[in-house]
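Worked example 2:
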Amino acid sequence: MGKPTGFIEYLREVAAEVSPRDRIHNWDEFHLPMDEDKLRTQGARCMDCGTPFCHTGTILNGMASGCPINNLIPEWNDLVYRGLWEEALDRLHKTNNFPEFTGRVCPAPCEGSCVLGINNPPVTIKNIEHAIIDKGWEEGWIVPEPPARRTGKKVAVIGSGPAGLCAAAQLNKAGHWVTVFERADRPGGLLMYGIPNMKLEKEEVVLRRLKVLEQEGVTFTCNTEVGKDLPVETLLKEYDSVVLCTGATRPRDLPIEGRDLKGIHFAMDFLTANTQSLLDRKVGSNFISAKDKDVVIIGGGDTGTDCVGTSIRHGCRSLVQLEILPKPPSERAANNPWPEWPKVYRMDYGQEEAAAVFGDDPRGYLTTSTRFEGDENGNVKAIHTVQIEWTKNEQGQFVPQQVPGTEKVLPAQLVLLAMGFLGPEQPLLDALGVERDPRSNVKANTSDYTTSIPGVFAAGDCRRGQSLVVWAFNEGRGAARACDLYLMGSTDLP
């Protein structure tokens, strides 16, 4: 390490942000660049810890611990400290195809398992990663690198989200001709339409990288739903291999009284339409608007937060976010030790913005919805809720029990369901005839990512279920390696 005592001498410092009250008036990214001297100081905090748990990439207690793509974090932290930015970028790209995405949207499980974090604030790993890749673009170090030779093999990747893009990038690097099929009007999947623009800028960040992939030889075919617009028989006949990266896009519903009322939407429909209108320059005419409405968001997580931030920018009248789980503690609980992901109370960007506008964190914990109430025109006008407590049933499982006397009625002209996803949509999988696991995901293991059909692989959320973008990167790279081995008999892909 360049500064063995850096973790003792320097305090944690993260990049500044545009204030919540100012940033809600536009759809721009709100993280501000950090001075190079400060970044080098933060790199110096990376300690010579012997066993760097930050890049182990394991699952502990059901959650990610360390970096799932095994980023060489101590190495590029040290290179940043020494001012060797181009070398740091090279180390970063060895394990991560798209650091500009993870540097913006990854929740940073690496920081949760940082050894320094045992008794001090952890190293600002995500902040440094973001700075490395942005400097790479600014300096012109990132240029198209098409493969030196082509194998003549053709691979179809279905889905252009995080897993699909990583699989396509790696397979193209191996020399195969790669076509990515996307049913939406633009490639990018979750990165394009599932994450709002202020969190991940589309034209200057996502499309910039997609253009490089095209210049390297990857073909994107949009507005094409395989199994509908393109028969699976044609696909299997024309391509030497197929990689399924369709995601887990089947949302969890809330089948209570009044669910059929107008004004109740799945979160992804709300977010997708908003970003699509923004990119089409039609904001104000072609999306689900929260303007001047009482908004209730059911569900937490990143999707719920994105709905909060989007509704605030629309100009909603009020906003409440309901969570069925209890409020997390302010510090790690005894049953949540390092290096597990710290399940502690934190305000994400959306809640910060809601607090700035309405005076408080919009989340209500241990709350469930019992029915929706409509007006004479069939529009939702209120939601009935009740507090719950978690108790164990006869099987020892925790189940929610309603608490009498805690019923409330909240005004709501817009309700957004952000309760997670149940798995991949099934029509394409039915058409292919691939085997599914008990959760309806494509059945494939992580040693070869092979489905029940030879030459057809699966990666990302359609295989593992809803997860982090960085796990999708891990699986896209793994499936590409397995696919290359299948096509060529050997592989040099990492």
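The chain has three domains: 6-138, 154-249+422-488, 253-419. Residues 362 and 416 are 14 Å apart (CA to CA).
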